[in-house]
Amino acid sequence: MAGLSLAALLGAAGHPVTVYEAGDLGGKLYKLHLVGLDFSTGPSLFTFPGVWRRYLAALSEADHLDLRPLPGGLGLHHTPYGALPLPLPPEHPLFAEWQRYVARVQPLRPHVETLLTIPPRLTDPVFLRASAALGRVIGPHLSAERWIAAQRFSPPLAHALRTHALNAGLSPQDAPALYALLPALIADEVSRPAGGMGALRSELVRFCLDRKVVLRARTPVLAVDAARAEVQLRRQHERHALLVSALDPARLAELRGQPVRSGRRRTVSGLAIYAVTAQPCDLPATSILPPSDFGVFRQALRAAALPPDTLALVHAEGRQRAVLLTVPATGQPLSPDHPWVRGQVGRVERSLGSAPLLDLAEATAFLGPDHYARLGTPGGSIYGAAYPLWRAGPVHPQPYRLSDTLWQVGTAVHPGGGIPAILGGALIVSRLLRERQA
Protein backbone atom coordinates (compact mmCIF):
# COMPACT_ATOMS: atom_id res chain seq x y z
CA MET A 1 0.00 0.00 0.00
CA ALA A 2 2.81 2.42 0.84
CA GLY A 3 4.47 1.72 -2.49
CA LEU A 4 1.27 2.34 -4.43
CA SER A 5 0.58 5.52 -2.45
CA LEU A 6 4.00 6.99 -3.16
CA ALA A 7 4.09 5.78 -6.77
CA ALA A 8 0.96 7.78 -7.60
CA LEU A 9 2.46 10.93 -6.08
CA LEU A 10 5.74 10.51 -7.96
CA GLY A 11 3.89 9.74 -11.18
CA ALA A 12 1.85 12.91 -10.71
CA ALA A 13 5.12 14.85 -10.44
CA GLY A 14 6.12 13.57 -13.87
CA HIS A 15 8.53 10.81 -12.89
CA PRO A 16 8.53 7.46 -14.72
CA VAL A 17 7.72 4.97 -11.95
CA THR A 18 7.73 1.17 -11.72
CA VAL A 19 6.28 -0.73 -8.75
CA TYR A 20 7.58 -4.24 -8.04
CA GLU A 21 5.36 -6.38 -5.80
CA ALA A 22 6.26 -9.94 -4.81
CA GLY A 23 2.60 -10.96 -4.58
CA ASP A 24 -0.63 -9.23 -5.45
CA LEU A 25 -0.75 -5.45 -5.43
CA GLY A 26 -1.65 -4.01 -2.06
CA GLY A 27 0.31 -6.24 0.33
CA LYS A 28 -1.83 -7.07 3.37
CA LEU A 29 -4.92 -5.40 1.89
CA TYR A 30 -6.76 -7.50 -0.67
CA LYS A 31 -10.14 -9.15 -1.20
CA LEU A 32 -10.79 -12.64 0.09
CA HIS A 33 -13.73 -14.52 -1.47
CA LEU A 34 -15.77 -17.00 0.60
CA VAL A 35 -18.97 -18.61 -0.75
CA GLY A 36 -19.91 -15.55 -2.78
CA LEU A 37 -19.02 -12.96 -0.14
CA ASP A 38 -16.00 -10.64 -0.10
CA PHE A 39 -13.80 -9.89 2.91
CA SER A 40 -11.17 -7.15 2.90
CA THR A 41 -8.00 -8.29 4.64
CA GLY A 42 -5.55 -5.87 6.24
CA PRO A 43 -6.62 -2.70 8.10
CA SER A 44 -10.21 -3.00 9.30
CA LEU A 45 -10.91 0.64 10.25
CA PHE A 46 -10.45 3.90 8.37
CA THR A 47 -9.29 6.64 10.76
CA PHE A 48 -8.01 10.20 10.43
CA PRO A 49 -9.85 10.82 7.14
CA GLY A 50 -8.21 14.24 6.98
CA VAL A 51 -4.96 12.52 6.00
CA TRP A 52 -6.78 10.86 3.10
CA ARG A 53 -8.13 14.26 2.04
CA ARG A 54 -4.62 15.73 2.11
CA TYR A 55 -3.43 12.87 -0.05
CA LEU A 56 -6.25 13.43 -2.54
CA ALA A 57 -5.46 17.16 -2.64
CA ALA A 58 -1.84 16.37 -3.51
CA LEU A 59 -3.11 14.39 -6.51
CA SER A 60 -5.93 16.83 -7.38
CA GLU A 61 -8.33 13.89 -7.10
CA ALA A 62 -11.95 13.76 -5.95
CA ASP A 63 -12.98 11.47 -3.11
CA HIS A 64 -14.83 8.42 -4.44
CA LEU A 65 -14.36 6.17 -1.40
CA ASP A 66 -17.77 7.05 0.07
CA LEU A 67 -16.59 6.75 3.66
CA ARG A 68 -19.40 5.78 6.01
CA PRO A 69 -19.38 5.94 9.82
CA LEU A 70 -18.98 2.54 11.42
CA PRO A 71 -21.97 1.80 13.67
CA GLY A 72 -20.91 1.92 17.29
CA GLY A 73 -17.69 3.84 16.66
CA LEU A 74 -14.72 2.02 18.17
CA GLY A 75 -16.95 -0.80 19.38
CA LEU A 76 -18.01 -2.52 22.57
CA HIS A 77 -15.01 -3.23 24.82
CA HIS A 78 -15.48 -6.32 27.01
CA THR A 79 -13.20 -5.46 29.94
CA PRO A 80 -12.87 -7.53 33.15
CA TYR A 81 -14.95 -4.78 34.79
CA GLY A 82 -17.84 -4.94 32.35
CA ALA A 83 -18.64 -3.98 28.77
CA LEU A 84 -17.89 -0.41 27.72
CA PRO A 85 -18.76 1.22 24.38
CA LEU A 86 -16.35 3.82 23.00
CA PRO A 87 -17.23 6.60 22.62
CA LEU A 88 -19.38 6.55 25.74
CA PRO A 89 -22.94 7.82 25.20
CA PRO A 90 -24.29 10.67 27.39
CA GLU A 91 -26.51 8.32 29.37
CA HIS A 92 -23.59 6.12 30.48
CA PRO A 93 -22.56 6.39 34.16
CA LEU A 94 -18.95 7.06 33.11
CA PHE A 95 -19.80 9.72 30.51
CA ALA A 96 -18.42 12.57 32.66
CA GLU A 97 -15.14 10.67 32.95
CA TRP A 98 -15.07 10.16 29.18
CA GLN A 99 -15.62 13.91 28.73
CA ARG A 100 -12.69 14.62 31.06
CA TYR A 101 -10.53 12.31 28.97
CA VAL A 102 -11.57 13.93 25.69
CA ALA A 103 -11.00 17.42 27.11
CA ARG A 104 -7.51 16.41 28.24
CA VAL A 105 -6.63 15.24 24.72
CA GLN A 106 -8.49 17.95 22.78
CA PRO A 107 -5.55 20.44 22.50
CA LEU A 108 -3.70 17.90 20.35
CA ARG A 109 -6.50 17.34 17.87
CA PRO A 110 -5.71 20.24 15.46
CA HIS A 111 -2.11 19.02 15.19
CA VAL A 112 -2.43 15.27 14.65
CA GLU A 113 -2.69 15.41 10.86
CA THR A 114 0.39 17.63 10.81
CA LEU A 115 2.39 15.07 12.80
CA LEU A 116 1.26 12.34 10.41
CA THR A 117 2.03 14.15 7.16
CA ILE A 118 5.13 16.36 7.52
CA PRO A 119 8.80 15.42 8.05
CA PRO A 120 9.96 15.42 11.69
CA ARG A 121 12.38 18.33 11.50
CA LEU A 122 13.39 20.48 14.43
CA THR A 123 14.00 23.37 12.02
CA ASP A 124 10.35 23.40 10.92
CA PRO A 125 8.18 25.69 13.09
CA VAL A 126 5.03 23.82 12.03
CA PHE A 127 6.45 20.52 13.27
CA LEU A 128 7.69 22.19 16.45
CA ARG A 129 4.24 23.59 17.24
CA ALA A 130 2.59 20.22 16.66
CA SER A 131 5.22 18.39 18.72
CA ALA A 132 4.87 20.94 21.53
CA ALA A 133 1.12 20.32 21.58
CA LEU A 134 1.77 16.59 21.93
CA GLY A 135 4.30 17.24 24.68
CA ARG A 136 1.86 19.36 26.66
CA VAL A 137 -0.78 16.63 26.54
CA ILE A 138 1.44 13.68 27.48
CA GLY A 139 3.69 15.56 29.90
CA PRO A 140 6.40 13.40 31.48
CA HIS A 141 4.47 10.17 30.83
CA LEU A 142 6.15 8.60 27.80
CA SER A 143 4.33 5.26 27.74
CA ALA A 144 0.63 4.63 27.27
CA GLU A 145 0.51 2.80 30.62
CA ARG A 146 2.11 5.67 32.54
CA TRP A 147 -0.13 8.29 30.94
CA ILE A 148 -3.32 6.34 31.68
CA ALA A 149 -2.23 5.64 35.27
CA ALA A 150 -1.53 9.33 35.83
CA GLN A 151 -5.08 10.30 34.83
CA ARG A 152 -6.63 8.13 37.58
CA PHE A 153 -9.43 6.85 35.39
CA SER A 154 -11.84 4.22 36.69
CA PRO A 155 -10.75 0.59 36.03
CA PRO A 156 -13.24 -0.02 33.16
CA LEU A 157 -12.23 3.07 31.18
CA ALA A 158 -8.53 2.62 31.93
CA HIS A 159 -8.63 -1.00 30.72
CA ALA A 160 -10.46 -0.02 27.52
CA LEU A 161 -7.95 2.76 26.79
CA ARG A 162 -4.99 0.44 27.39
CA THR A 163 -6.35 -1.78 24.64
CA HIS A 164 -5.66 0.87 22.01
CA ALA A 165 -1.95 0.86 22.78
CA LEU A 166 -1.93 -2.32 20.72
CA ASN A 167 -2.42 -0.13 17.64
CA ALA A 168 1.33 0.34 18.02
CA GLY A 169 1.79 -3.43 18.01
CA LEU A 170 2.99 -3.26 21.62
CA SER A 171 1.67 -3.69 25.14
CA PRO A 172 0.60 -0.49 26.98
CA GLN A 173 3.82 -0.55 29.02
CA ASP A 174 5.91 -0.39 25.82
CA ALA A 175 3.71 1.69 23.51
CA PRO A 176 4.15 5.48 23.22
CA ALA A 177 1.70 7.61 25.21
CA LEU A 178 0.25 8.90 21.94
CA TYR A 179 -1.60 5.61 21.52
CA ALA A 180 -3.46 6.12 24.80
CA LEU A 181 -4.89 9.28 23.23
CA LEU A 182 -6.23 7.60 20.10
CA PRO A 183 -9.81 6.88 21.23
CA ALA A 184 -10.39 10.57 21.96
CA LEU A 185 -8.87 11.54 18.61
CA ILE A 186 -10.64 9.03 16.35
CA ALA A 187 -13.84 7.86 18.08
CA ASP A 188 -16.04 10.34 16.22
CA GLU A 189 -14.54 9.58 12.80
CA VAL A 190 -14.23 5.80 12.61
CA SER A 191 -15.43 4.81 9.16
CA ARG A 192 -15.17 2.33 6.33
CA PRO A 193 -15.58 2.75 2.57
CA ALA A 194 -19.01 1.71 1.31
CA GLY A 195 -17.29 -0.85 -0.92
CA GLY A 196 -15.14 -2.24 1.89
CA MET A 197 -11.53 -1.52 2.72
CA GLY A 198 -10.47 -3.08 -0.56
CA ALA A 199 -11.89 0.00 -2.27
CA LEU A 200 -8.86 1.94 -1.03
CA ARG A 201 -6.52 -0.44 -2.79
CA SER A 202 -8.58 -0.12 -5.99
CA GLU A 203 -8.38 3.68 -5.82
CA LEU A 204 -4.61 3.66 -5.32
CA VAL A 205 -4.17 1.31 -8.27
CA ARG A 206 -6.36 3.60 -10.40
CA PHE A 207 -4.35 6.66 -9.35
CA CYS A 208 -1.16 4.88 -10.42
CA LEU A 209 -2.50 3.71 -13.78
CA ASP A 210 -3.87 7.17 -14.57
CA ARG A 211 -0.34 8.53 -14.06
CA LYS A 212 1.35 5.91 -16.26
CA VAL A 213 2.92 4.02 -13.35
CA VAL A 214 4.06 0.54 -14.39
CA LEU A 215 2.66 -2.02 -11.94
CA ARG A 216 4.50 -5.34 -11.86
CA ALA A 217 2.63 -7.69 -9.53
CA ARG A 218 4.08 -11.11 -8.68
CA THR A 219 7.55 -9.81 -9.48
CA PRO A 220 9.71 -10.30 -6.39
CA VAL A 221 12.90 -8.32 -5.98
CA LEU A 222 15.70 -10.76 -5.10
CA ALA A 223 18.52 -8.29 -4.44
CA VAL A 224 19.07 -4.54 -4.22
CA ASP A 225 22.22 -2.67 -5.30
CA ALA A 226 21.77 0.77 -3.79
CA ALA A 227 24.94 2.23 -5.32
CA ARG A 228 23.74 1.41 -8.84
CA ALA A 229 20.02 1.92 -8.06
CA GLU A 230 19.51 -1.57 -9.46
CA VAL A 231 17.17 -4.42 -8.53
CA GLN A 232 17.67 -8.07 -9.37
CA LEU A 233 14.57 -9.91 -10.56
CA ARG A 234 14.17 -13.57 -11.47
CA ARG A 235 15.33 -13.20 -15.06
CA GLN A 236 16.99 -9.80 -15.30
CA HIS A 237 18.36 -6.76 -13.57
CA GLU A 238 16.57 -3.42 -13.78
CA ARG A 239 18.31 -0.10 -13.23
CA HIS A 240 16.54 3.09 -12.17
CA ALA A 241 17.41 6.66 -11.26
CA LEU A 242 16.19 6.11 -7.70
CA LEU A 243 14.90 3.26 -5.53
CA VAL A 244 12.29 3.58 -2.79
CA SER A 245 11.72 0.54 -0.58
CA ALA A 246 8.33 -0.10 1.00
CA LEU A 247 9.72 -3.24 2.65
CA ASP A 248 10.44 -3.79 6.30
CA PRO A 249 13.94 -2.38 7.02
CA ALA A 250 15.21 -5.81 8.09
CA ARG A 251 14.07 -7.37 4.83
CA LEU A 252 15.66 -4.53 2.86
CA ALA A 253 18.95 -5.13 4.67
CA GLU A 254 18.81 -8.80 3.64
CA LEU A 255 18.26 -7.85 0.00
CA ARG A 256 21.25 -5.49 0.20
CA GLY A 257 23.44 -8.27 1.58
CA GLN A 258 23.85 -6.51 4.91
CA PRO A 259 23.82 -8.17 8.33
CA VAL A 260 20.48 -8.14 10.12
CA ARG A 261 20.56 -7.58 13.85
CA SER A 262 19.11 -10.62 15.60
CA GLY A 263 17.34 -10.71 18.93
CA ARG A 264 15.47 -7.43 18.49
CA ARG A 265 12.07 -7.21 20.08
CA ARG A 266 9.24 -7.24 17.58
CA THR A 267 5.82 -5.76 17.39
CA VAL A 268 2.96 -8.26 17.53
CA SER A 269 1.61 -10.41 14.74
CA GLY A 270 -1.94 -11.57 14.17
CA LEU A 271 -4.19 -14.49 13.38
CA ALA A 272 -7.13 -13.48 11.21
CA ILE A 273 -10.18 -15.76 11.03
CA TYR A 274 -12.80 -15.01 8.38
CA ALA A 275 -16.09 -16.89 8.53
CA VAL A 276 -19.44 -16.98 6.76
CA THR A 277 -22.35 -18.14 8.92
CA ALA A 278 -25.63 -19.68 7.80
CA GLN A 279 -27.66 -16.89 9.40
CA PRO A 280 -26.96 -13.17 9.86
CA CYS A 281 -25.03 -12.33 13.02
CA ASP A 282 -26.87 -10.51 15.80
CA LEU A 283 -23.70 -8.78 17.02
CA PRO A 284 -22.39 -5.21 17.19
CA ALA A 285 -20.39 -4.08 14.17
CA THR A 286 -17.24 -4.12 16.32
CA SER A 287 -16.53 -5.96 19.57
CA ILE A 288 -13.20 -5.85 21.39
CA LEU A 289 -11.99 -8.34 23.99
CA PRO A 290 -8.80 -7.03 25.62
CA PRO A 291 -6.40 -9.28 27.49
CA SER A 292 -7.64 -9.66 31.06
CA ASP A 293 -4.19 -8.82 32.47
CA PHE A 294 -1.88 -6.62 30.38
CA GLY A 295 1.11 -7.46 32.59
CA VAL A 296 0.78 -11.19 31.94
CA PHE A 297 0.09 -10.45 28.27
CA ARG A 298 3.30 -8.42 28.01
CA GLN A 299 5.40 -11.14 29.63
CA ALA A 300 4.09 -13.70 27.16
CA LEU A 301 4.79 -11.51 24.14
CA ARG A 302 8.32 -10.78 25.32
CA ALA A 303 8.91 -14.51 25.69
CA ALA A 304 7.40 -15.13 22.22
CA ALA A 305 4.78 -17.31 23.94
CA LEU A 306 1.04 -17.49 23.44
CA PRO A 307 -0.66 -15.49 26.24
CA PRO A 308 -3.40 -17.03 28.43
CA ASP A 309 -5.83 -14.67 26.72
CA THR A 310 -5.23 -12.10 24.03
CA LEU A 311 -6.72 -9.12 22.26
CA ALA A 312 -9.59 -10.22 20.04
CA LEU A 313 -11.13 -7.79 17.57
CA VAL A 314 -14.45 -8.99 16.16
CA HIS A 315 -16.23 -7.45 13.17
CA ALA A 316 -19.73 -8.61 12.23
CA GLU A 317 -21.87 -7.66 9.26
CA GLY A 318 -24.74 -9.81 8.03
CA ARG A 319 -23.44 -13.36 7.62
CA GLN A 320 -19.82 -12.26 7.73
CA ARG A 321 -17.58 -12.38 10.77
CA ALA A 322 -13.91 -11.53 11.13
CA VAL A 323 -12.02 -12.38 14.31
CA LEU A 324 -8.53 -10.91 14.61
CA LEU A 325 -6.36 -12.36 17.40
CA THR A 326 -3.10 -10.79 18.57
CA VAL A 327 -0.22 -13.28 18.70
CA PRO A 328 3.56 -13.07 19.14
CA ALA A 329 5.55 -12.55 15.95
CA THR A 330 7.12 -16.00 15.68
CA GLY A 331 6.29 -16.63 12.03
CA GLN A 332 4.89 -20.02 13.03
CA PRO A 333 1.61 -21.29 11.55
CA LEU A 334 -1.44 -21.58 13.78
CA SER A 335 -4.18 -23.94 12.65
CA PRO A 336 -7.87 -23.67 13.56
CA ASP A 337 -7.49 -26.93 15.50
CA HIS A 338 -4.69 -25.61 17.69
CA PRO A 339 -5.84 -25.78 21.35
CA TRP A 340 -4.90 -22.15 21.98
CA VAL A 341 -6.86 -20.96 18.94
CA ARG A 342 -9.86 -23.03 20.01
CA GLY A 343 -9.61 -21.56 23.49
CA GLN A 344 -9.49 -17.95 22.27
CA VAL A 345 -12.39 -18.47 19.87
CA GLY A 346 -14.35 -20.06 22.71
CA ARG A 347 -13.65 -17.00 24.86
CA VAL A 348 -15.02 -14.78 22.10
CA GLU A 349 -18.15 -16.91 21.77
CA ARG A 350 -18.81 -16.89 25.53
CA SER A 351 -18.21 -13.16 25.90
CA LEU A 352 -20.43 -12.22 22.96
CA GLY A 353 -23.03 -14.93 23.54
CA SER A 354 -22.68 -16.01 19.93
CA ALA A 355 -23.09 -19.34 18.16
CA PRO A 356 -19.96 -21.47 17.63
CA LEU A 357 -17.83 -19.71 15.05
CA LEU A 358 -15.68 -22.49 13.65
CA ASP A 359 -17.99 -25.48 13.96
CA LEU A 360 -21.10 -23.97 12.36
CA ALA A 361 -19.55 -21.69 9.75
CA GLU A 362 -20.29 -22.45 6.10
CA ALA A 363 -16.77 -21.40 5.13
CA THR A 364 -13.67 -20.12 6.90
CA ALA A 365 -10.24 -18.78 6.02
CA PHE A 366 -7.19 -18.28 8.24
CA LEU A 367 -4.23 -15.93 7.89
CA GLY A 368 -1.56 -16.38 10.57
CA PRO A 369 1.95 -15.18 11.43
CA ASP A 370 3.43 -17.43 8.75
CA HIS A 371 1.31 -15.63 6.13
CA TYR A 372 2.37 -12.18 7.31
CA ALA A 373 6.01 -13.31 7.52
CA ARG A 374 5.86 -14.19 3.83
CA LEU A 375 4.88 -10.57 3.17
CA GLY A 376 8.31 -9.54 4.44
CA THR A 377 8.29 -8.61 8.13
CA PRO A 378 10.29 -10.55 10.75
CA GLY A 379 8.08 -13.24 12.24
CA GLY A 380 5.05 -11.65 10.60
CA SER A 381 5.26 -8.65 12.95
CA ILE A 382 2.73 -5.97 12.12
CA TYR A 383 5.23 -3.08 12.22
CA GLY A 384 8.57 -4.89 12.30
CA ALA A 385 10.99 -4.17 15.12
CA ALA A 386 9.92 -2.58 18.42
CA TYR A 387 11.73 0.66 19.21
CA PRO A 388 12.32 2.61 22.43
CA LEU A 389 9.64 5.11 23.42
CA TRP A 390 11.79 8.09 22.48
CA ARG A 391 12.09 6.82 18.90
CA ALA A 392 8.39 6.33 18.34
CA GLY A 393 5.44 8.32 17.04
CA PRO A 394 6.37 11.60 15.31
CA VAL A 395 10.09 10.95 15.97
CA HIS A 396 10.32 8.18 13.41
CA PRO A 397 12.63 5.24 14.16
CA GLN A 398 14.11 4.85 10.67
CA PRO A 399 15.49 7.41 8.21
CA TYR A 400 13.52 8.03 5.04
CA ARG A 401 16.74 8.56 3.05
CA LEU A 402 19.37 5.81 3.25
CA SER A 403 21.53 7.17 0.43
CA ASP A 404 21.21 9.46 -2.57
CA THR A 405 19.66 6.61 -4.55
CA LEU A 406 17.80 4.61 -1.87
CA TRP A 407 14.86 5.81 0.23
CA GLN A 408 12.28 4.11 2.46
CA VAL A 409 8.53 4.50 2.94
CA GLY A 410 5.86 2.58 4.87
CA THR A 411 4.65 1.93 8.40
CA ALA A 412 7.93 0.35 9.54
CA VAL A 413 9.56 3.72 8.83
CA HIS A 414 6.71 5.97 9.94
CA PRO A 415 4.92 3.98 12.67
CA GLY A 416 1.79 6.05 13.04
CA GLY A 417 -0.18 2.88 12.46
CA GLY A 418 -2.41 1.71 9.63
CA ILE A 419 -3.74 3.78 6.78
CA PRO A 420 -2.83 7.24 8.16
CA ALA A 421 0.82 6.18 8.43
CA ILE A 422 0.80 4.69 4.92
CA LEU A 423 -0.63 7.81 3.31
CA GLY A 424 1.19 10.24 5.59
CA GLY A 425 4.52 8.56 4.98
CA ALA A 426 3.98 8.74 1.21
CA LEU A 427 3.25 12.47 1.48
CA ILE A 428 6.41 12.97 3.56
CA VAL A 429 8.73 11.11 1.18
CA SER A 430 7.18 12.81 -1.84
CA ARG A 431 7.84 16.20 -0.25
CA LEU A 432 11.42 15.35 0.74
CA LEU A 433 12.23 14.12 -2.77
CA ARG A 434 10.68 17.23 -4.28
CA GLU A 435 12.76 19.45 -2.00
CA ARG A 436 16.00 17.65 -2.93
CA GLN A 437 15.31 18.16 -6.61
CA ALA A 438 14.44 21.86 -6.25
TrEMBL record:
<dbReference type="GO" id="GO:0016491">
    <property type="term" value="F:oxidoreductase activity"/>
</dbReference>
<protein>
    <submittedName>
        <fullName>NAD(P)/FAD-dependent oxidoreductase</fullName>
    </submittedName>
</protein>
<dbReference type="InterPro" id="IPR002937">
    <property type="entry name" value="Amino_oxidase"/>
</dbReference>
<dbReference type="InterPro" id="IPR036188">
    <property type="entry name" value="FAD/NAD-bd_sf"/>
</dbReference>
<dbReference type="Pfam" id="PF01593">
    <property type="entry name" value="Amino_oxidase"/>
</dbReference>
<feature type="domain" description="Amine oxidase">
    <location>
        <begin position="1"/>
        <end position="259"/>
    </location>
</feature>
<keyword id="KW-0560">Oxidoreductase</keyword>
